[in-house]
């Protein structure tokens, strides 16, 4: 899959105060008018987002716990020096989200 996969983390929302994760997949425009109906046992639901702005930082390599925290910090520093420094909203329930793409190529013996 090369389409973006969005993973949002909600600290403390899981069992025993662990983090909970929400995985969201992008539905291409051609399917948005009549989206496919998922199997009930998958416990999936569709979610439409209102238009909004998102700050993004791009980095290469694999998304791992150790580097996404560093990259999120770099994004925060970058935003602190911009006109958008104080324009964040606390309306969301997520601490942060990461969007990943799977390469069409597979690494062997990793």
UniProtKB/TrEMBL annotation:
Please give the InterPro entries that the UniProt record associates with this protein.
Reg_factor_effector_dom_sf (IPR011256), SOUL_heme-bd (IPR006917)
- Please give the coiled-coil regions recorded for this protein: none
Gene3D superfamilies, per this entry?
A: Regulatory factor, effector binding domain (3.20.80.10)
Q: Which domain of life is it from?
A: Eukaryota
**Family per similarity comment:** Belongs to the HEBP family.
Q: Which PANTHER family match?
A: HEME-BINDING PROTEIN 2 (PTHR11220:SF1), HEME-BINDING PROTEIN-RELATED (PTHR11220)
Q: By what name is this protein known?
A: SOUL heme-binding protein
User: From which source organism is this entry?
Assistant: Tetracentron sinense
């Amino acid at each position: 899959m090369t389409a973006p996969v969005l993973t949002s983390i909600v600290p403390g929302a899981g069992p025993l105060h662990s983090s909970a994760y929400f995985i969201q997949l992008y539905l291409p425009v051609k399917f948005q008018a009549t989206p496919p109906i998922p199997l009930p046992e998958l416990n999936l639901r569709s979610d439409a987002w209102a238009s909004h702005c998102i700050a993004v930082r791009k980095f290469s390599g694999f998304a791992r716990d150790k580097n996404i925290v560093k990259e999120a910090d770099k994004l925060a520093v970058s935003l602190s020096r911009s006109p958008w420094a104080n324009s964040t909203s606390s309306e969301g329930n997520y601490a942060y989200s990461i969007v990943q793409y799977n390469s069409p190529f597979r690494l062997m013996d990793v």
